[in-house]
Amino acid sequence: MAEAHQAVAFQFTVTPEGIDLQLSHQALTEIYLSGLRSWKKKLIRLKALVRIFSGRQPLLYSYQGSLPNQPVPAVKDTVKRYLESVRPLTTPDEFERMTSLATQFESSLGNRLQWYLKLKALWASNYVREGISHTNSIFCFATSNADLRCQNGASPSLTCTLSPQDFLYVTPTPIQAARAGNTLHAFLMYRRKLNREELNRVPGTVIPLCAAQCERMFNTTRTPGEETDTVQHWQDSDYVAVYHRGRYFRLRMYSSSRPLSPREIESQLQRILEDPSPPSPGEEKLGALTAGDRIPWAKARKEYFSLGVNKRSLDCIEKAAFFVTLDDDEQGMMGEDPAASLDRYAKSLLHGKCYDRWFDKSFSVVIYKNGKIGLNAEHSWADAPVVAHLWEYVLATDSFQLGYNEEGHCKGEVDASLPRPQRLSWDITPECQEQISQSLAVAQALADDVDFHVFSFRDFGKGMIKKCRISPDAYIQLALQLAYYRDRGMFCLTYEASMTRLFREGRTETVRSCSNESCAFIKALEGGEVCRRLLRHASEKHQNLYKHAMTGAGIDRHLFCLYVVSKHLGVDSPFLKEVLSEPWHLSTSQTPVQQVELFDMVNHPEYISCGGGFGPVADDGYGVSYIIMGENMMNFHISCKHSCPQTSSHKYGGQIRQALLDMLQLLCPDQREPSRSDQSQTKKDL
Asked: Residue 396, Cβ neighbours under 10 Å: how many?
């Protein structure tokens, strides 16, 4: 692992005769450079603090310099929390064995590895992110183990992507080019606000959050490597890359330094839609290289795209502001079976045809033939809340600010002198085409195996849950645990993403939602007991776990950093090896609604998004993404694999629905369960 070689500058051993110190010149150089980068950022942020103290309105990055560094937890505390988290998942003999391994690690190797992390914490901005991974490394110990597998060669197109959806009940215009015109212009408006630092990143709170992830939102590409991927970022691009019917185009978004109007973008995209030229040999499915395994893509990139016309065209895609797909399919909740069509829509955004997205770009905008839109966002550069913030702005700006004329076209006039979009040229050899076919086969097999289900829960929402004096997130997490227990007859290691953006350059931490308290509640409920007290106790425990994760006292990032250091030193830790090999059978994440002021959910309840989802992390597990919309609606995205006979996204979705209802009945026995007619009326109203 390349980044591991940059984690350690020296080795030392404490002996009765003193300290035996061994220095590594290369590692010291890397530590120096990472610290230098960190201090350059600190100087820039110091200027922002001066702005704040001068009484001027703080900007997006104004608080970066005042954010604290993420603390390194004590090894004994992390080990204690870990053992507590696995207690309900192990037999007495398994727990005793794990306790022995943990105790041995804590008293010996753990303290040695901890010194290196403390060294990084003293010098770098974030011991989890800065320095241990090199400047542009895609893996910053900030995401789940799925990203590690992606780094080590597997396809990133399923577990390492996020796929936010369009409005659930409304399509502002059925004209593909028009919807694309407003949407792309809204992205440019957001980028301008981002460059001017005018975005409000801390809605409804005075607590500043780290905004470092925003820096790589646009003009960013994940580049494959044989050892590790890198994320490359360029200065503002004045164009986007567009894919349609197997052809790639370069579409300039500015004319004489001004952004094109929505109507002009619509006109330019219509030219692409009407272009009759066929794809060149190998061009149509070229994007499959970004969907397949990483090492073959890295080798093919070096061999076939390092010079000439192929390099120029590839550079054009990778340096574009973002990627756009004009999809020939129609998607959305429609037809005689709207539920099934919603599932197909979600799967389409996740992987498409496996060659009509550019999965390496920071995000790809998908515009469907019937005017529906969506996003496919690569996960390494940012986490879901950052992508969701961008998407909320685009949806609201498209419908409520830009709008359409009576015919459904974008408003405004068109400059007839605009040059046509430029068609990209390729020279794809037969050998390269063979590699494209192999990558497509790998990606297609993964995509076909994904079982995806999306549903809206409208029986009640966070309003009713809060009336019961329960945290909505804790309530949902307990429902997911209860549903899994009913589905599989057991408890499992559960991952819930929590942000650590209270700290400088913080990303995420894991909340291990399956606890002793949650298991006690579920066993009592399934045993027929009235267990309100246990439910509340489990909810309080979950909130405490979440607080620990947010404030730097989590488990998994610390253990993984210790593991990376141990790999560099060439020492094996049975304890760390076992911890890192444990599968997350239930991987969950909440997508927060951050810009409530942009949407009027009372007067316009139809203008709501269904959120977005991701693929399963474990072959025999589930991926669950959920979003709480307003006071009376919760949307769920559930994924698993067809190849696992023990999992079914629809069956698990039904279990989640029933668990939500049963828990409310426990808390509020007098609450009437909604009838079918009530549910039908709710759907009709929406």
From this structure: 17
* Torsional sign, CA 175, 176, 181, 182: positive
Would you say the pTM of this structure is higher than 0.90?
no
Strands, DSSP E only, in 6-122?
Answer: 10-15, 18-23
Residues 87 and 516: beta-carbon distance below 8 Å: yes
Residue type, 47: K
- Residue 515: DSSP 8-state: -
Decide the pairing of beta strands 363-367 and 373-378.
antiparallel
In the chain, % of residues over pLDDT 90:
72
Coil, strand or helix at 494:
strand
* 566-575 per-position pLDDT tens digit: 988 899 999 9
For residue 379, indicate whether it is catalytic.
yes
> Is residue 293 a contact partner of residue 442, using CB atoms and an 8 Å limit?
yes
The DSSP annotation for 348-380 comes to HHHHTTSSSS-TTBSEEEEE-TTS-EEEEEEST
CATH class of domain segment(s) 159-201+210-448? alpha beta
How far does Cα 478 stand from its chain's mean position? 22
| Per-residue pLDDT tens digits for 174-214 | 999 999 999 999 999 999 999 999 887 554 456 788 999 99
Out of 185, 379, 558, 585, the active site residue is 379
Predicted confidence band of residue 51 (pLDDT cuts 50, 70, 90): low
Q: What is d(CA 431, CA 28) in angstroms, rounded to the nearest whole number?
A: 43
Sketch the domain layout of the chain as residue ranges. 10-48, 159-201+210-448
Instruction: Report how far apart, in Å, the C-alpha atoms of 674 and of each of 42, 141, 562, 633, 665 are.
Output: 55, 44, 50, 14, 11
How do beta strands 586-590 and 622-629 pair? parallel
The C-alpha atoms of residue 542 and residue 517 are separated, in whole angstroms, by: 9
Residue whose token pair is 């801390």: 202
Closest CA relative to residue 421, chosen from 639, 212, 618, 265: 265
Q: Which amino acid type is present at position 244?
A: H
HEC letters along 449-469 = CEEEEEEEECCCCHHHHHHCC
Strand partners, 373: 367
